[in-house]
Design a protein that fits this description.
heterodimer; A: about 675 residues; alpha/beta; Rossmann fold; 8-stranded mixed β-sheet; 26 helices; about 35% helix; globular; B: about 325 residues; mainly alpha; MetI-like fold; disordered C terminus
């Protein structure tokens, strides 16, 4: 077990800036990967973790170059090796599983060919043997009917299936070291849990060493023996994973763990101030100095060295680790959310159905949508003023579709959306008057795309103020300043462009723009999923604060159940565009619950090696909701039989006011559920 | 798939119908008509009437359109005014000549463009790229009437290697035509090749930067295998449409080049018939050029559809 297979020595990688300065992405990294172990590399975007993983294959991205140090594999330095020699190592000795398999599979080549290519290059098998082997590999990654999958093109598979193909392709060369670059980011929670379980199985089964790169401590906790924490191009903490997750002795890791919302805790986690410095802006001293709660005067001018602590088998880069060591149990404190719920209905969604079906000519003439099995159906939710209601579900569950209809971006097929019990909003965007548009605002997932890159922050926020309130001149400026203050951005941000802001700052601008319209309802579409963990907590806290100040109602869409748990008053669980369960969040997260909620909750990954995900159902992807019966029948592990296939389940209401739509009686439902 | 093809053909036919209407209406509202042009100063009284009767211009416009269209579908475009011969016979050799010119340019230009594009992309920012890119940008920016004139000056007049302008009868045989087309082909191919090479270059560069190419490298696929298997099929797909447009442009007659070299192709016929106010010929040309564009674009779209597995399955599913 102690044989070292990859040795990284004093590795520095960087690029030349336009001014000719050398800017470092990786700074003096040294670490060893031992045979058979799984090492997790964790860090926020821009911390250099992917660059490090690629360097371990002797690959340096275009525009970057090696400044110093080496990556030693089989006692030769990969970074100095010729391409011809690297071709013999890549795929055969060291293989990569990419982040986004959908992008990483060549679109014009069949799955079978792409795996066969790896086999041709890295094994001596004959053609028939290779065919056999392809089936074996696809079987190993648990893809159904390997023979047909091999004949498909990448785009004909679902995200989870593509990721499995990428795993099969990496395993084709029976590598000694597998590098995984965020292999589950972008997959649904349930799929993610399944893929991780598969990787764990493969690591045990083949004895392959793995380097698992991720920003997600939850995923890292499930797979790794050892964890390396990176911060702005440096290793700040390295050690056995249990110790690092339970007793982090570096302030950054400590803060990071505290800022992750947990299923077991209702309320908002504490946020870490600031953000990671951009490469090239680092000054003397510790790079974490600005954000550190434990900093001292000497941290400002002296950079701490990575120090190996024998008794803990851990390396840490901090002057103060001793004081943290005594008191570093992550005692997560959360800011309990105040409910500003009022007893007044603000939005009434009844019997709403939405269809993406194309209208044929007759339908267009009659101005109707005929589709007996629409994407979204039978949605009944009444939302109270000041409430935060969350819509959760996997991709394809219709949660964003419902948001679009409320916003007026998508026509409903049937049903009524009513605002304030009188104004009918079922109509199209074009038919709404300006005030109807003002009362509902949207915040999007990705601020890079939702903010116009050619507008300054001032112009972005001014738009709704001018449009809805006709503000001009000094008055307009005053309002913009106030809004910026509300989202905790200084006045000097007014003249900046979105590209000059960090991800968190951009999302704050998007929040300010939404609030500029003084809306009654704000629709939040995955607002934190593009953000780093430490920034996510800050944005959630900000949203909560603004809600308390303005009495706004939030409709919050997210796939992250822990985030939903932290911020919402009520949760609606959707599967295939049909409601499964609606109830107060504290009750939805308790049992009894709908079998689908159970699946979702079981798949949540917590940054704790002791809490393992529970895989209840298969992660099959269904393309269309079933014609009749329960929407979840295809994946339900507790299916009763014909009744589930033929009849739409009734609503059952628990004592706490939680509604569950299932044929299984409540008592039964509770009995076998994992608790 | 079949449904899609039929739909596209129908759409193409509608386009042609609209083009024919526009040209018909256009020639109709112009002051003067075929007879006034033909008779010049004698265009009055008895003679004009006689001319109208002879050309069938005395019936209402829509009737003329219908009878013209019915004949045109059968390949009969009526009589040219200038030579008083059937337009069919005027067009025939011209189309053949343009076809010869275009196919020569295509067979020389496209392979060269592909090779140059791929080479410049693979050796991006290295010497081959810098050298070739400079030349292609140069070739792209010089207007063809200048490059054509320079070619005539250097190769025909100074070096006396090839004839400078084409002085042959329109219906000359292929082999007699051959030495005459070398200079025009060079002039056209230069611009066309340069454009296409730039297109291919940027497309290949884009694919080279994609994640699946990075993945192929990390899989240990040897460089040239990666280029041929993973890069080129994906990079050249979007080039098909550009190539198609270029071919259509070539077949439609490269007006300026044909005029400079006095080449008896479609392009020169366009200029001639417009300056002669030979309206029936202009009409016929408009329809023929439009059909060339429509059919070649249709072919290109179908080819993309066949070669791109993504689009193919999407269509089948629907």
């Amino acid at each position: 077990m102690t044989e070292i297979i990859q040795k990284v020595k004093n590795l520095s990688i960087g690029f030349k800036s336009k001014k000719g300065e050398e800017i470092l992405i990786l700074r003096n990294i040294s670490t060893n990967i031992k045979k058979g172990e799984t090492v997790g590399i964790v860090g926020e975007s821009g911390s250099g973790k992917s660059t490090l993983a690629l360097a371990m294959m002797g690959y340096v991205k275009q525009g970057l170059y090696t400044i110093g140090g080496e990556c030693e594999f089989n006692s030769s330095n990969l970074l100095k090796m010729k391409n011809r020699d690297l071709e013999k190592i890549r795929g055969r000795k060291i293989a990569m599983i990419p982040q986004n398999a959908g992008q990483a599979l060549t679109p014009n080549l069949k799955i079978g060919y792409q795996i066969d290519e790896a086999l041709q290059l890295h094994s001596d098998l004959k053609e028939e043997e290779r065919e056999q082997k392809i089936s074996e590999l696809l079987n190993k990654v648990r893809l159904p009917s390997p023979e047909t999958i091999a004949l498909r093109y990448p785009h004909e598979l679902s995200g989870g299936q593509q990721q499995r193909v990428a795993v099969a392709m990496a395993l084709a060369g029976t590598p000694d070291l597998l590098l995984l670059d965020e292999p589950t980011t972008g997959l649904d929670v349930t799929t993610q849990a399944h893929v991780l379980e598969l990787l764990n199985f493969i690591a045990k089964d083949t004895g392959t060493s793995m380097v698992y790169v991720s920003h997600d401590l939850g995923a890292i906790a499930q797979v790794s023996d050892r964890i390396i924490v990176m911060y702005s191009g440096e290793i700040v903490l390295e050690g056995p994973s249990r110790d690092i997750l339970k007793k982090p002795i570096h302030p950054y890791t400590y803060g990071l763990l505290k800022s992750i919302p947990k299923l077991s805790l209702a309320g908002l986690p504490q946020s870490m101030p600031g953000s990671q410095p951009q490469p090239g802006t680092m000054h003397r001293g510790c790079s974490f100095f600005d954000r550190c709660d434990f900093s001292e005067e000497k941290c400002k001018s002296n950079s701490p060295q990575l120090e190996y602590l024998e008794e803990l088998n851990t390396s840490v880069r901090c002057f103060n680790h001793k004081s943290l060591m005594n008191d570093s149990q992550v005692n997560q404190t959360v800011n309990k959310i105040k409910t500003s719920l009022q007893d007044k209905e603000i939005l009434n969604i009844s019997e709403v159905s939405i269809s993406y079906a194309k209208q044929n000519l007759l339908d267009q003439v009659l101005n109707r949508i005929s589709d007996d099995n629409p994407t979204v159906k039978d949605i009944n939710i009444n939302i109270k003023k000041g409430e935060t209601i969350a819509l959760v579900g996997e991709s394809g569950s219709g949660k964003s579709t419902i948001l679009k209809s409320i916003a007026g971006l998508l026509r409903t097929k049937g049903g009524v959306i009513k605002f304030d019990q009188k104004r009918n909003l079922s109509s199209d965007l074009k038919e709404r008057d300006p005030n109807d548009l003002r009362i509902i605002q949207l915040i999007f997932q990705n601020p890079d795309e939702s903010l116009n890159p050619n507008h300054t922050v001032e112009e972005i926020i001014a738009q709704p103020l001018k449009l809805y309130f006709g503000l001009k001149g000094e008055e307009l400026k005053k309002n913009i300043k106030e809004l910026l203050q509300k989202v905790r951005l200084g006045e000097f941000y007014m003249s900046r462009y979105p590209r000059q802001l960090s991800g968190g700052e951009k999302q704050r601008v998007a929040v300010a723009r939404a609030f500029a319209a003084k809306p009654d309802i704000i629709l939040c579409d995955e607002v934190t999923s593009a953000l780093d963990v430490s920034v996510q907590a800050a944005v959630l806290n900000l949203l909560q604060q603004l809600k308390e100040d303005f009495g706004t109602t939030y409709i919050f869409v997210s796939h992250d159940l822990a985030v939903v748990r932290a911020i919402s008053d009520r949760v609606a669980v959707l599967y295939q565009g049909r409601l499964c369960e609606v109830g107060p969040s504290k009750d939805v997260y308790q049992f009894p619950s709908h079998p689908y909620t159970e699946v979702l909750l079981g798949a949540v990954l917590e940054p704790d090696p002791d809490i393992k995900p529970k895989l209840v159902a298969e992660d099959i992807v269904e393309e269309k909701p079933p014609q009749k019966g329960c929407s979840f029948q295809g994946r339900c592990s507790r299916i009763l039989g014909d009744i589930c296939k033929n009849e739409i389940p009734p609503w059952q209401i628990t004592n706490s006011g939680n509604s569950i739509r299932c044929h299984i009686p409540l008592k039964e439902l509770q009995k076998d559920q994992i608790n | 798939m079949l449904f899609l093809i039929i739909k596209r053909i129908l759409l193409g036919l509608i386009t042609l119908f609209i083009v024919s209407l526009i040209t018909f209406v256009g020639t109709e509202i112009l002051p003067g008509d075929a007879c006034t042009t033909y008779l010049e100063r004698q265009a009055f009284g008895e003679q004009l009437e006689a001319c109208y009767r002879r050309l069938g211009l005395n019936v209402p416009a829509y009737e003329r359109y219908v009878s013209w269209a019915v004949n045109a579908i059968q390949g009969d475009f009526g009589y040219s005014l200038s030579g008083e011969m059937p337009i069919k016979e005027v067009l025939g050799p011209r189309i053949k000549n343009s076809l010869v010119l275009a196919s020569a340019a295509i067979f020389i230009g496209i392979p060269i463009a592909l090779i140059l594009g791929i080479v410049t992309a693979l050796w991006r920012d290295k010497l081959p790229d810098v050298a070739i890119s400079t030349v292609t940008i140069f070739a792209m920016t010089i207007p063809e009437f200048i490059s054509a004139t320079l070619l005539i000056l250097i190769i025909a007049i100074w070096l006396e290697w090839l004839p400078g302008i084409v002085i042959v009868p329109t219906d000359v045989s292929f082999f007699e035509l051959l030495p005459n087309i070398i200079l025009p082909v060079i002039a056209i191919a230069m611009i066309m090749t340069a454009h296409m090479a730039r297109m291919v270059r940027s497309s290949v560069i884009q694919v080279m930067a994609s994640e699946y190419v990075q993945m192929a490298i990390l899989k240990g696929v040897p460089y040239w295998k990666m280029v041929f298997k993973h890069v080129l099929p994906n990079a050249l797909l979007p080039a098909i449409n550009v190539v198609a447009l270029t071919i259509a442009w070539l077949l439609g007659g490269v007006v300026v080049t044909e005029v400079v070299f006095n080449y008896p192709g479609l392009g020169r016929l366009v200029i001639e018939s417009i300056s002669n106010r030979d309206l029936p010929t202009v009409q016929a040309l408009a329809i023929i050029l439009a059909s060339i564009y429509v059919s070649i674009n249709l072919l290109a779209d179908l080819m993309t559809l066949m070669l791109n597995p993504r689009l193919k399955t999407l269509q089948i599913r629907k």
